[in-house]
TrEMBL record:
Presence of the UniProt keyword Transmembrane in the record: yes
Sequence intervals crossing the membrane: 45-68, 155-174
Protein name: Transmembrane protein 234
Pfam families listed in its UniProt record: TMEM234
UniProt topology in membrane: Multi-pass membrane protein
InterPro entries in UniProt: TMEM234
Compartments in which it is found: Membrane
Listed GO CC annotations: membrane
Keyword terms of this UniProt record: Membrane, Transmembrane, Transmembrane helix
Superkingdom classification of source: Eukaryota
């Protein structure tokens, strides 16, 4: 739905600007401010399109946090047994540890998913506000890590960890609200 609104808004903006080409990849910044208020339909369409873009960014950042945080406990479990790998020299030790990890599906699968999260994060940072994206992703990743760890039976710290999660969520919400209000 957002893609259709985006295309319609770009076409309407191109007509509004005398047929000048507008990049289909991204709306110009502050486009809702350029559009005259007398064209209320176009103005509403562009505002709705910008809301869809922001919603898509938030969805992508939540996906990143889930991929990062959800895989951390599995990565920890995948490294179990690494301490047992012993070799005589440091270079051989390093190669033996790399072999252990690369041939261990319990480590490789979560690692690949974690790296997919990093790729989505990198792509999302091109259009997201850094002052919101970085704390939002990192704090949510922590919350996903604690939740996933709890589901897997790890001790996460009880009431103090729960309080920390609530305070983290509150801080991100307040920061997000303050930034949007500007």
């Amino acid at each position: 739905m957002c893609a259709g609104l985006r295309a319609a808004a770009l076409g309407a903006l191109a007509r509004e600007q005398g047929g000048r080409a507008v990049s289909a990849g991204r709306l110009p910044s502050g486009v809702a401010l350029i559009v005259p208020k007398t064209r209320s339909g176009l103005h509403k369409c562009l505002a709705l399109t910008l809301d869809c873009v922001v919603t898509g960014e938030i969805g992508a950042l939540i996906l990143v946090a889930a991929l990062w945080g959800g895989t951390n406990p599995f990565l920890k479990r995948g490294t179990e047994g690494l301490e047992q790998v012993r070799r005589k020299s440091q270079p051989i030790q390093l190669l033996a540890e790399m072999k252990f990890l690369c041939l261990n599906y319990k480590y490789v699968v979560p690692f690949a998913l974690n790296q997919c999260g990093s790729l989505v994060y990198y792509l999302t940072l091109a259009s997201a506000d850094l002052t919101l994206a970085v704390p939002f992703c990192n704090s949510l990743a922590l919350m996903f890590t604690l939740a996933t760890g709890k589901v897997l039976g790890e001790a996460i710290g009880g009431a103090r960890a729960a309080l920390g999660m609530v305070l983290t969520a509150l801080g991100v919400a307040l920061s997000s609200r303050k930034r949007r209000g500007r």
